[in-house]
Amino acid sequence: MEHRCEVAVLGLGAMGAAPLYQLAKAGVKVTGVDRHHPPHTQGSSHGDTRITRLSVGEGAEYVPIVRNSHRIWRELEALSGESLFEQCGVLVMTSSPSYDADDASDFTHRTLHLAKTYGIEHEVLSAAQIRERFPQFSPVLDTAVGYFEPGGGYVRPERCIAVQLKLAEELGATLFKGETVLHITSDEQGVTVITDRRTILADKVVISAGMWSQGLLGKPFDTLLKVCRQKLFWFELEENARFAPVSPTFIYYHGPEESNYGFPPLPGEGSMKVATEQYSEESSPDTLDRTVVDAEARDMFDTHVRGKIAGVTSRVAKSAVCAYTVTPDSHFIIDEHPSLKNTLVVSACSGHGFKHSAALGEALAQWCVRGSCDLDLSAFSLKRFAE
Ligand SMILES: Cc1cc2nc3c(=O)[nH]c(=O)nc-3n(C[C@H](O)[C@H](O)[C@H](O)COP(=O)(O)OP(=O)(O)OC[C@H]3O[C@@H](n4cnc5c(N)ncnc54)[C@H](O)[C@@H]3O)c2cc1C
Hints:
- By secondary structure, this protein is of the alpha+beta class.
- It folds into two domains: 2-65 and 156-222 and 329-386, FAD/NAD(P)-binding domain (3-Layer(bba) Sandwich); 90-150 and 226-326, D-Amino Acid Oxidase, subunit A, domain 2 (D-Amino Acid Oxidase, Chain A, domain 2, 2-Layer Sandwich), CATH 3.30.9.
- It has helices at 14-25, 63-80, 107-118, 127-133, 157-170, 213-217, 221-224, 294-305, 354-370, 383-386; strands spanning 2-10, 30-34, 50-52, 85-86, 90-94, 123-125, 145-149, 153-155, 174-177, 181-187, 190-195, 199-207, 226-237, 249-253, 259-262, 271-275, 282-283, 312-326, 333-336, 343-347.
- Strands 5, 6, 7, 13, 14, 15, 16, 17 and 18 form a nine-stranded mixed sheet that branches. Strands 1, 2, 9, 10, 11, 12, 19 and 20 form an eight-stranded mixed sheet that branches.
- Helix 1 runs parallel beside helix 5, helix 1 (14-25) packs across helix 9 and helix 2 (63-80) packs across helix 9 (354-370).
- The chain is globular, with a radius of gyration of 21 Å.
- The chain binds flavin-adenine dinucleotide.
């Protein structure tokens, strides 16, 4: 079977659903392929919540991207009638015995600095103000410092993907779900994609295969990318738990190397999602252990919740596993494939990509249509690793 299109998008998680939609919106004959049936729970985009914030402490280069994403989530909400972006605010804070007020590398400091530079609405909170405004984070140390951004909050990943795929289809996109891409070649005429069902001939291709990228993309991605298993926990709330009426999402540094992040209890759930990040243990799509054992839940509660988040019990309502695909510097790779023509790779969003996905979709669509994009994505090029 042979199928022709102008652009093929390979992988329809966060990073694929967005360009698929934007390309269809631009009137491009676009086809999306996914080995599963997105939104699904096998990749990195599942669940109900992903934090978003305008002051992105990971780097100034991300600020214009996330700004565009916030605009696009609202546009998608208006088009679909779905609620995608909950602006409950975000609290980034450091309450650590090792805290050094002069340490410019502290994530809360970096976030604060960026907010000032970019004129992002925020408040700086002292320990007393954190205790008063957000009693769930008590006790914090007297040296604690908080950054509160009212415009941040969380986006709903599976809904965002579902909405963009649906709108793309309505605009004429073709979707091949449950179909695996096996091989990609290119020449001056275009790109040939071999799947387990057909051959797709495209003028251009966007590859957004998440943690499967290493295998699909070959060199140099096979050595640059690392898949890291992450665990998520939903701890049951105490009966009389005190949460502010509108509780924020949070990123909480509480020790030299210790941090967690989490979300306000969602209506009707009776639990609070808290998670951490790890980059030392490597996994792969085939070996990823998707079960969470009791010892991991106990360790999470003892290290990251007990004495740090009030109103939460050690009872685990639910747990889950997800994977980060990280680069050596934890930044993104968005670049043309070095040995495939007309092929753009967006991958390895290193565990912080969702908030940027809508805007990256718009930028990638512009690249496909006119060979350049409004956003400056040069910071994410492959050449930084060669240098
Ligand atoms: C636990 C966790 C928490 C996170 N928290 C945040 C957060 O708070 N804020 C934030 O901004 N970001 C966060 N992120 C990061 C964000 O979710 C990811 O960067 C983003 O979802 C990655 O999307 P993706 O499209 O690259 O990958 P995926 O969603 O995994 O999509 C890849 C797709 O490619 C398909 N595919 C792969 N190989 C093939 C093939 N050969 N043929 C066909 N299809 C293929 C897969 O089926 C899959 O659907 C978090 C990630 C995790 C795991």
